[in-house]
Design brief:
The complex is a heterodimer of chains A (233) and B (281). With 233 residues, chain A is α/β, with parallel strands linked by helices. Chain A has helices at residues 49-57, 84-93, 110-119, 125-138, 155-167, 185-200, 212-218, and strands at 3-16, 21-34, 38-42, 64-71, 75-78, 95-99, 173-177, 204-208, 221-226, 229-232. Chain A starts with a strand and ends with a strand. Chain B is an alpha/beta fold. In chain B, 36% of the residues lie in helices and 21% in strands. In chain B, strands 5-6-7-3-8-9 form a six-stranded mixed β-sheet, with helices on both faces. In chain B, strands 2-1-4 form a three-stranded antiparallel β-sheet, with helices on one face. The longest helix of chain B is centred in the last third of the chain and has 18 residues, at 209-226. Classes of the chains: A alpha/beta (233), B alpha/beta (281).
Chain lengths: 233, 281
């Protein structure tokens, strides 16, 4: 299998101008993910796990190094330096990101939220409606909630919706930043079933989980961050 | 899918200064300004070498404090003001090969009426407050060469309905309307000729929160539905967060930073942007 993601000498630090501080988050990180793999990242809290994922998604601007992603549309492309327009297109069509926080447009219903994720890929409205309902059903989100605003949802419901929105796109690469952090056991099982299904369909996944058992049941390989460095384990 | 690669609007090195400049501030390299103001001659450099590209269907946000040059930039693009220097190209006009700023006044009027719509912060700037609302919309359509009253009225009704102005009030003047309604009439007017580009200058500033939400939802809705490109100026980061795909940050007439909106908000690089983001949270 080819590498879908090759990270070379990635460094990221934050300069906080108002308090004159420079914080090093990750330093000279290199690793790879092969197509179709599920790779887990572990490490102490504050070790820079999320920073790595956010650099890949370009929510953080990497300073040094390369993040070479093998895109279906663009071929090998360095996400650390790619134009913003390209990143936007990759986010719409190829790379998904799920965090433990739901970041939504205010006054958008759960149904609209998931549906829009499909529409922005250029799919037809009918298809989007169908897939949206399937996905919301799978996560057993109460039907009465479908047309209400997620801001009123419980933590678990928000999280399930968040995952539904990312997974409905069937992305080629899915970044998972503690997606099961506050889920009960039954919901975790649902996430697990979907992850397995996506794996079967060929989605590559890179994820951080606080629940190590959950992760180790699913992942093919594991990296541990130690002192800002990636160690294969 | 398949966004076209060519920008719909390209601005290159746009400069706008008020005042003639002097030896100390004449060339950009050696310029020593107090913010955007030359202490020696009093010239104000409102926009300095601003370049941007707006793509089809994209919302580009421009943030910055009051006086940073955001509105001046918008006024220059809409020909409300003459630029000092710079270039602008519109894909829909002569295939993007002609610098708009060098066109005749007549051509500029054509471009403004056919290819752009603008919504001002102050509705007095964008509307004739004494005219009927539908008359305001018709005005822009007439300016674009429409002469068929029936067709214009039908289009006006459709637009007002779309921005949730009750059709039975369409013959009322905007001066009778609330601030939010006036903004919605402005949006309807701006959209009347189906322009590929919409310029929004602080459209929700001064509106109370629920009305603001209403106007923002309308814009988002129309943008998704019409796939129109929007240049969105705001000093309000939550407006930018909600609507913009990419964001430019302006300070003292210059672009200090630009990037994906979530990156600007989560990982701001410039000291000013950090201050702005931290003021929000």
């Amino acid at each position: 299998m080819e590498n879908i993601l090759t990270i070379e000498h990635l460094s990221k630090s934050f300069t906080l101008h108002n308090i004159n501080k420079h914080i090093k988050a990750i330093n000279n990180v290199s690793f790879f993910v092969k197509e179709g793999e599920f790779v887990g990242i572990t490490g102490k809290s504050g070790s820079g796990k999320s920073t790595v994922l956010r650099c890949i998604y370009r929510t953080y601007l990497p300073q040094k190094g390369h993040i070479v992603y093998n895109s279906k549309k663009f071929g090998p492309i360095d996400l650390a330096h790619a134009p913003e327009r390209t990143i936007i297109e990759l986010r719409k069509n190829e790379i998904g990101y799920v965090s433990q926080f739901l970041n939504v447009m205010p006054r958008t219903t759960a149904r609209e939220l998931v549906k829009h994720a499909i529409l922005e890929m250029g799919r037809e409205a009918e298809f989007a409606d169908r897939e949206t309902e399937k996905m919301l059903d799978h996560f057993e989100l109460d039907r009465s909630l479908w047309d209400s605003y997620p801001t009123t949802f419980s933590g678990g419901e928000k999280l399930r919706l968040n995952i539904a929105r990312a997974m409905v796109k069937r992305p080629r690469l899915l970044l998972l930043d503690e997606p099961t952090a506050s889920l009960d056991h039954a919901s975790k099982i649902k996430v697990k079933v979907l992850i397995e299904q996506l794996m079967k369909e060929g989605t590559t996944m890179l994820g951080i989980f606080h629940d190590l058992e959950f992760m180790q049941n699913l992942c093919n390989r594991e990296y541990r961050i130690q002192d800002g460095q990636f160690v294969s384990s | 899918m398949g966004e076209s690669a060519a920008p719909i609007l390209t601005i290159k090195n746009l400069n706008k200064q008020f005042g003639s400049g002097c030896d100390q501030c004449g060339s950009r390299a050696g310029r020593k300004l107090d913010k955007n103001y030359c202490p020696a001659c009093g010239t104000v450099y409102s926009c300095q070498d601003i370049s941007l590209e707006l793509y089809p269907g994209e919302v580009l946000g421009i943030v910055g404090e009051s006086g940073s040059g955001k509105s001046t930039l918008m006024r220059c693009i809409y020909f409300d003001q003459e630029v000092t220097s710079g270039e602008a190209y519109l894909q829909a006009y002569k295939e993007g090969r002609s610098n708009l700023f060098e066109e005749s006044a007549q051509q500029k009027r054509f471009i403004r009426n056919h290819l752009m719509g603008k919504v001002y912060q102050n509705p007095v700037m964008g509307l004739r407050m004494q005219f009927t609302s539908i008359g305001n919309i018709a005005e822009k359509m007439i300016a674009a060469g429409n002469r068929n009253v029936g067709a214009m009225e039908a289009r006006g009704r459709e637009l007002l309905d779309r921005v949730y102005i009750p059709v039975y009030r369409m013959k009322e003047a905007p001066k009778n309307f609330s601030g939010g309604m006036q903004q919605r009439v402005q949006i309807a007017k701006a959209l009347s000729n189906n322009p590929p580009i919409l310029l929004l200058d602080e459209v929700t500033t001064g509106l109370d929160l629920s009305v603001q939400a209403n106007v923002l939802d309308l814009i988002k809705h129309l943008q998704r539905e019409l796939n129109i490109s929007i240049l969105l100026v705001s000093h309000d980061l939550s407006v930018i967060r909600m609507l913009a795909d990419r964001t430019m940050v302006m300070l003292n007439g210059q672009v200090v930073e630009q990037g994906l909106t979530d990156q600007i908000l989560e990982d701001p690089q410039h000291a000013y942007t950090q201050q702005l983001v931290h003021s929000l949270l």
